[in-house]
Amino acid sequence: MAHQPGAPARPQQHRIGVVGAGRVGAVLAAALRAAGHDVVTAAGESDASRGRVAALLPGVAVRKPSAVARACDLLLLTVPDDMLANVVRVLADSGALRPGQLVVHTSGRHGLAVLAPAAAVGARIVALHPAMTFTGTAVDLDRLAGCVFGLTAEPGERAVAASLVDDLGGRPLWVPEERRALYHAGLAHGANHLVTLVTEAMEILAAAGADDPAATLRPLLTAALDNALADGDAALTGPIVRGDLGTVQAHLDGILTEAPTTLPAYLALARATLSRAVTDGRLLPIRALAMSQALAEAEAAHLAGLAAQQPGQPAQPGQPGQPAAADPPLRRTP
């Protein structure tokens, strides 16, 4: 349809190629296709990747990465972080990238520096990271609505980066190059470690006899998450912030006996919670010291149990599930 005078200019429609048709790549490409872009080809070597292309991008040919790069004007690189630099370098050195081409990666950790070989041949470069967890199925498409995308781009590419996020239904968050790793650490700490925390909480409840630990936790965790996002530390409740040493000791005894593999995470998070409760003044330092000693005693008992299971292999401080030489001091405000 011809552009009508006075109507808003239609954003540029791109011919998109995807290298790395994993959970993220296949979903983002499908969303961009739904927004009117032409996804022309994708690269993915595993059966899972080929299956995602077939399910989410029907009709899109699967080709080698260099062929994908040559066929598109917007190359979407959705490979693992540690592979990204090598993929960019190989594509640039092989002549598969060209001046004016958009090369966009979806790594949270990396910014523009990793795309330097592409920039050196004249490509336009953008870092575009969705702050979302993906299943690699059509379920993810609706989750992109309102999703924040961590963007890093030179001034001349900011408009096209923002346009892509708009096409994906998301919201842009501009992240300075030097803070990409910190940005990603915040997301990983919140989301990835949350999965570990919830899984271990379900293990403890199962050991307590709960027949459906997930259903037991769901209302509590939903409320706790909403409160934490709204109020931060003010949402903190429970025995540590109340100073209930006896309750914490009972937790430790039960976990040591029935779910010892979850103890290291409980100890780490209990210490972090203890520090925050002291910092904001809700727990007196003398009470916190008693709790800290209880945590250290439980850790020592756990180590003794591990050592007893492996005669001749004494536990070494600082290894997983084992304490450092001494507990770190409680966190203080400057």
Explained architecture:
This protein is an alpha/beta fold and 334 residues long. The chain has two domains: 15-175, Rossmann fold (3-Layer(aba) Sandwich); 183-309, no CATH class. It has helices at 23-34, 47-56, 65-71, 81-93, 116-120, 139-143, 158-167, 180-207, 213-231, 239-242, 245-258, 263-279, 285-309, and strands at 15-19, 38-43, 61-62, 74-77, 102-105, 124-130, 148-153, 171-174. The protein has an eight-stranded mixed β-sheet, sandwiched between helices. Helix 4 links the parallel strand 4 and strand 5. It is elongated and about 65 Å long. The relative contact order is 0.07. Residues 1-10 and 317-334 have low confidence and may be disordered.
Concise account of the structure shown:
It is built from 13 helices and 8 strands. With 334 residues, it is α/β, with parallel strands linked by helices.
Major β-sheet, in short? 8 strands, mixed
What is the number of independent domains?
A: 2
Strand content: 5-15%
DSSP strand tally: 8
Question: Could you state the order of secondary-structure elements as H and E?
Answer: EHEHEHEHEHEHEHEHHHHHH
The largest beta-sheet arranges its strands as 3-2-1-4-5-6-7-8
Q: Poorly predicted ranges (pLDDT <50, ≥5 residues)?
A: 1-10, 317-334
The global form is: elongated
Q: CATH superfamily assignment of the largest domain?
A: NAD(P)-binding Rossmann-like Domain
Q: Architecture of the largest domain, according to CATH?
A: 3-Layer(aba) Sandwich
Quote the CATH topology of the largest domain.
Answer: Rossmann fold
Distance between the ends: 62 Å
Overall pLDDT confidence: 90
